[in-house]
Amino acid sequence: MTHHPALPTFTHAAGTVRAADGTTLSIRRYPESGVSHGAPVLLVHGFGSDAQTNWLLAGWVRALRQAHRQLIAVDLRGHGNSDRPRESSAYSMRAMTADLQAVLSAALPDGGVLDAVGYSLGARLTLEFAAQSRATAGPHQLNRLVIGGSSGAPLFQGIDPAQLDRALTSGIIPDDFETARIARITQALPGNDPLALAALARGLATDPDSARRAPDPAQPILLAVGSADPLSGAADEWAARLRRGGVAARFVPLPGRDHLTAVPSGVFRAAAVEFLSQ
Questions:
Q1: Which helix H or strand E contains 241, and what residues bound it?
Q2: Tens digits of per-residue pLDDT, 53-105?
Q3: Residue 62 contacts by C-beta under 8 Å, 6 or more apart in sequence?
Q4: DSSP structural state of residue 54
Q5: Which backbone phi and psi does 219 adopt, to 5 degrees?
Q6: Of 160, 269, 172, 138, whose CA–CA distance to 206 is shortest?
């Protein structure tokens, strides 16, 4: 008999939020009740993952709750327990940042300042949301940003949509590196819907907002990338450029980690908790 480790248990409130276009988003808030200190923290997971895998199972909820922070975690559209549209038109940078606003409006109806942790796709959405909120003086302003698995580069620009669709229907992984990488990620978690994730990749691949670099943040930012992730050098250079521009930016390399193994890094969690506590 195979024995699986028990899921970590932390008191939380689970619920759903209706996005502007009617998409239902699953959210969790930690703790359900009780005392928290400091600004709330928004957690935005990466492509092909979900809030439970990215944050609970990888130890982030434990680490941030030990620091007494209130947490708001969302399953992005196409992921986890949120709706999973299979039409690429359902996925755009504008729609997905609007989802974050809907989540925060429900979780923090009085507005206010909060911190955010985003990984990979979640990192890009967090950066976009931070820039939009600052430009429009929105009700929710991001104070400190922890960004993992990102160098600010455009999203999904190297994929071949036709090859991706063939890979999902035939199971044959294409020779094209970026398309093959996305195809493998869509099938990484047993509960994933590969057709919904492929629609997301196609939608963002053709979205002009995804074809440009992420906006440079004005907030203090911690950038963390695995040393074995091809993005590492570009992320380090980005942090240096931000510092030259007057932004408090720190780069943390994660020894021996690649893009898929960086999230549970203890070095990453410890650096993030320290940074968010400043």
A1: helix 232-244
A2: 999 999 999 999 999 999 999 999 999 999 999 999 999 999 999 999 999 99
A3: 8, 10
A4: I
A5: -80, 160
A6: 160
Residues 140 and 129: beta-carbon distance below 8 Å: no
Amino acid at 215: P
Spatial CB neighbours of 199, under 8 Å, sequence gap ≥ 6: 78, 85, 86, 87, 88, 90, 91
Is pLDDT at 1 greater than 50 in this prediction?
no
Structure tokens belonging to residue 272: 């993030």
Give SS3 for 192: coil
One DSSP character per residue, 77-127 reads TTSTTS----SGGG--HHHHHHHHHHHHHHH-TT-EEEEEEEETHHHHHHH
pLDDT of 2 over the 50 cut: no
Please enumerate in sequence order all residues whose Cβ is within 8 A of that of 217, keeping only pairs 6 or more positions apart, or say none: 127, 130, 131, 145, 242, 247
**What order of strands is seen across the sheet that includes strand 249-254?**
13-18, 24-30, 71-75, 41-44, 112-119, 140-148, 221-226, 249-254
The amino acid at residue 180 is: A
Task: Evaluate if residue 34 carries a pLDDT over 80.
Answer: no
Match 């931070």 to its residue by tokens: 130
Residue range 108-114: average pLDDT? 96
C-alpha separations of 249 from 99, 125, 132, 228, 229 in Å: 27, 18, 20, 21, 19
- pLDDT tens-digit series, residues 213-266: 999 999 999 999 999 999 999 999 999 999 999 999 999 999 999 998 999 999
Angle between helices 177-186 and 161-170 (to 10 degrees): 40
How far is residue 7 from each of residues 21, 30, 63, 124, 165, measured CA to CA in Å?
33, 15, 15, 28, 34
The pTM score is: 0.93
